[in-house]
Amino acid sequence: MGDTFLGFRRENGAVGVRNLIAIIPSVFCAAKVAQRISQNVPGTVHFSHPVGCSQVGDDLDVTARTLIGIGRNPNFAGVVVAGLGCERFTPKELFDGIAPTGKMLEMVVIQDAGDSIKAIEIGTRMARQMQQKASMERREEIPVSELMIGLNCGGSDTTSGLVANPALGLASDKLVGQGGSSVLSELTELLGTEHILARRAVDEKVAADILRVIGAMEERLKRQIQTSHNSRRKNLISTGNYDGGLSSVVEKSLGSMKKSGNAKFVEVFAYGDAPTKKGLLLLDGPGHDGEVTTGLAAAGAQIVCFPTGRGTPSGFPGVPVIKITGNPRTFERMKENIDINAGTVILGKNTLQEVGEEIYREILAVASGKMSKAEVLGHDEQFCITRMP
User: Fold this and answer.
1) Are 175 and 360 in contact (CB under 8 A)?
2) What is the 3-state secondary structure (H, E, C) of 53-98?
3) Is the pTM of this model over 0.85?
4) Which positions ≥6 away from 216 have C-beta within 8 Å?
């Protein structure tokens, strides 16, 4: 019998590790209304963003699919959609995209309500009623096969690739080995490793998809570098990465890929979509921390695991982010932000396998209700929908 955690079983069979109400604006014009509704009702989170109108083609489509995916995430027991009334991505389209989940769902439109004050009043009433119902739900024992974790990293240094990422890879392998799912992304930080990752594909199609999406990202970066007039802006890794001892994007990539362990990749899927298979997955997404975490949450990840050598406090609304560092000094400086100190391997206090097990157990604890440090401190900065060029 495999491991279990305590989660919330949803109407459509999906499982959440949090039981929150999401307030999602369909357009930036309704962002303040969504924020005010959330401020009025404990146990809610809001998703302010600058998009939803004046977009066309793939750019608008990615926004629509991502917002719908966020609303479908099983960590949310209910959703209040807030719209203006004349936006390109209509509140009704967002509502209809979430509706098949069967979760509690309401919609308030500012222009129909009469003004923003009335819309806040209506939305607050909706959210309060949802939260009262959600508060009656109880956790139940769930197999780890129902878990999907997202793999993200930021503020990397040499210890990320040496310790933190490989330890997370061991935890990922253990989860996938029991039927769960783990999602790797950040294609800008996988450049130069595509041939290695393709060898780990479950079949030729998945191998070809890995080579295709990483190759396309490399071509996109080449175009952006060629049009830059500032030589410093052409660097593919940050100044913090250099200061942390990383010499190139390929060196960073070799460490970054270790987050995915050694399992076989079973599917490659697009940003804003949800995977159709369980196991180790590759999300075709950029390297920006917020955009990656948003794509992971829209895909259905209930938890994000985030190695950081340099240290970062950022989190995501409604989806717990577990921070891991391989740098003992970073852990000492940022104890209030970092959940797991993988730097004990460097200090000779623990083996890589022991820290991998510690990360795995932390994932189960957070899935069962333990708050990550980012949650405790209210960090929710990482909601950021990618834009298509």
Assistant:
1) yes
2) CCCCHHHHHHHHHHHHHHHHCCCEEEEEEEECCCCCCCHHHHHHHH
3) yes
4) none
